[in-house]
Design goal:
It is built from four helices and no strands. With about 120 residues, it is mainly alpha-helical. It starts with 7 loop residues before the first helix and ends in a 15-residue tail after the last helix.
Amino acid sequence: MEQMTFDRDKRKIFSAVSHGSIFLSQLIFSAGIPFVFWLISEDPIVKDNAKEALNFHLNIWAYSIVFGLLTWVLIGFPLLLILGIIQLVMPILAILAAFRDPDGVYRYPFILRVL
């Protein structure tokens, strides 16, 4: 059986774009990018990175809704601030990890993996 080889440069770019897509917006469009990579890529590393990026999107959306509702009791404001920082920092770390180790899958800490 012939073993498939994958282009490491494409792997780096596609993995980084999947993780960086959250910077486009918090709308569904930004999750569409890793979703497409997850569906069409044959590279298992790109698929895993895209799936992890999708899980991060879903977590950010869920926490945004919960924390937004908590603004009615004022505790939501600092929680939204913390979430904003996490939403900025974690994808940057994921992008750096994708370029540093194109053969690895970045796992976001403290998220629920629903996919």
